Amino acid sequence: MDTRQLGTNGPDVSVICLGAWPLGGGMGVIPDKQAIATIHASIDAGANFIDTAEGYRTSEGVLGKALKGRRDQVFLATKLSGDQSVEHMAEAIENSLRLLGTDCIDLYQLHRPQFEIPIEDTMANLEKLRDEGKIRYIGVSNFSGDHHRQTAKHGTIHSSQPRYNMLTRQVEDDVLPACEELGTGVIPHSVLAKAMLSGKYRPGHVFPSDDERVSKPEFHESVFMPAMKIVEKLLAWAGDHGREGPQLAIAWCLANPVVTSCIVGAKTPEQAVYNAEAAEWKLSENDMAELAEILGDFRLPYSVAG
To answer: How many CB atoms lie within 10 A of CB 240?
Structure first.
């Protein structure tokens, strides 16, 4: 699989990153055996960059089980989901290290901006963890462009995790330019728009109560119906090129040179391999122009943090 450099002076990582939110039960509970098989399939397919978080339910624990004997094959990222006080950070990093079964996390990220604690204090605490050898690189998630710039004054940010997909492009106006300016690697999440871009879900679909999408505003009929008109055109375009919706969503994201790696969730080994194979599709400038015409000005409602 292709690799790209994660930020200025960062490591090379695979262009597909396995998003571990579904593996922790965030989109419906799955057996540990299935989750572990999915993780192994992703690694074997070359997508050896894995992203999880403190707040991803059982995700860190199941990853720890899956990575026994294979930790050295993976670039492992997790996130500080709770408050960013020095006390909680100290507790959270130890919990993550224990659950993941490792003595060092490759990429440790702030899950979202928190303004109660000065960012200079938070960055100082993160750099202390790095100096202690508990983390290697520092990243952020769901930050605005301005907050990236404020944070970068107090240390190097190697990565940024914005919500970015064909239907949610607000970060093109703010976050992506800031990352390019700062030399920060972009690793978008929600690349498939919570599977809306897959075409799998149609109006009237009812999600199980343990699936996060049951309460997501983009699946409310008033938003979902207009979005599906665009999705249907995208599915048709992908079909005309011998591909499917999820492959198009991934290839489109990777066609942006600012993007380092796409975070894509999977719940089965087959999905993990399918996602890895999507990275082989290289969209041309003409392809991107045709897709831009289909997308027009449509964007799902989304407010960038900060």
So the answer is: 9
Contact yes or no for 306/144 (Cβ under 8 A): yes
* Per-residue tokens: 275: 């996602």
Question: What is the spatial distance between Cα 294 and Cα 289, in angstroms, rounded to a whole number?
Answer: 9
How does DSSP classify residue 145? Answer: H
Nearest to 252 by CA among 287, 226, 222: 287
SS3 248: helix
Other CB atoms within a 10 A radius of the CB of residue 175 amount to 29
* CA gap 213, 154 in Å, rounded: 36
CA 189/CA 26 separation, integer angstroms: 14
What's the rounded Cα separation, in Å, for the pair 144 and 217?
A: 21
DSSP-derived letter for residue 142 is S
**C-alpha to C-alpha distances, 186 to 40, 166, 174, 204, nearest whole angstrom:** 25, 15, 13, 34
At residue 189, does pLDDT exceed 60? yes
Distance CA 20, CA 17 (A): 9
Contact between residue 63 and residue 39 where contact means Cβ atoms under 8 Å apart: yes
Q: What is the pLDDT of residue 3?
A: 98
Task: Calculate what percentage of the chain has a pLDDT beyond 90.
Answer: 85
Structure tokens given for 225: 């119906």
Q: 249, 165 in Cβ contact below 8 A?
A: yes
Whether residue 164 lies in the annotated active site: no
44 CB-near residues (< 8 Å, 6+ apart): none
Closest by Cα among 201, 208, 163, 99 to 305: 163
In 3-state terms, what secondary structure has residue 181? helix
Q: How many CB atoms lie within 10 A of CB 304?
A: 18
**C-beta of residue 165 within 8 angstroms of C-beta of residue 253:** yes
Query: In the prediction, which pLDDT does 218 show?
Result: 73
